[in-house]
Design goal:
Radius of gyration: 19 Å
Strand order of the largest sheet: 5-4-3-6-7
CATH class of the largest domain: Alpha Beta
Distance between the termini: 58 Å
Order of helices and strands: HHHHEEHHHEEEEHHEH
Shape: globular
Number of domains: 2
Strand content: 15-25%
Helix content: 40-55%
Number of helices: 10
CATH superfamily of the largest domain: SCP2 sterol-binding domain
Structural class: alpha+beta
């Protein structure tokens, strides 16, 4: 038996045989947002060495979760993408994000990339609470911006938005994570660590759809 295998006739153990190694699920997280070049993955996985990333990508390719493709011209770049089986891990990552967000709120520091907000927001999104809701929100962290768009039970993202959003939410990563924890969320808004700007009705609708504290 391979030292990387549990050797157990169990569905959970079999899944962990494929994705249980350190960094494996975070590679999947990065690829859930689309094809990535090797350098993109290195930037989105601060702390991983280039040798370990190469090893994890080989492992995930061997498990038929990730594959290499070449983008059409003019890009013609070699990228990594999720296979159908790899993309099927999305609910697993969303469940982990929902479970981890309260622990994240108590974490004091760490590397941050604005695009990581997408996974957390998707894990919090409740389509049934967004019926007939049409609202855009810009999350501002330092000089970076991520726009989320809710259109009647759907949630999408735009890294390069144009024009103003209906709502803007500005703060550092630690404060923003607290918006999903009711009492803490109200506190970071009240003391100014998170700034929320927008029409009250839009802010309230956003709060219901994403389960976030709001000032309305």
């Amino acid at each position: 038996m391979s030292p990387r295998r549990y050797g157990q006739y169990c569905a959970a153990a079999t899944a962990l045989d494929a994705i249980g190694d350190r960094w494996a699920l975070l590679v999947i997280r990065e690829l859930l947002t689309g094809p990535k070049r090797y350098t993109d993955l290195l930037d989105g996985l601060p702390g991983i060495s280039t040798d370990l990333l190469a090893t994890r990508l080989r492992d995930l390719e061997a498990e038929h979760l990730v594959e290499r493709q070449v983008l059409p011209p003019p890009a013609a770049s070699k990228v990594y993408v999720l296979t159908e089986d790899g993309a099927a891990l999305e609910p697993v990552l969303l469940a982990l994000a929902r479970w981890g967000i309260r622990r994240l709120a108590g974490q004091q520091a760490g590397e941050f990339r604005t695009h990581w907000l997408m996974l957390s927001l998707r894990s919090l999104f409740t389509p049934s609470a967004a019926t007939s809701v049409h609202v855009t929100v810009d999350f501002l962290v330092d000089d970076d911006r991520l726009r989320a768009r809710i259109d009647d039970r759907t949630l999408t993202f735009d890294h390069h938005p144009t024009g103003p959003a209906d709502v803007t939410i500005k703060g550092d990563p630690g404060a923003l994570s607290r918006l999903a924890v009711a009492d803490e969320g109200r506190a970071v808004i009240a003391d100014g660590r998170v700034l929320v700007d927008g029409e009250p009705a839009a802010v309230a609708a956003l709060g219901r759809a994403l389960g976030l504290a709001s000032d309305s």
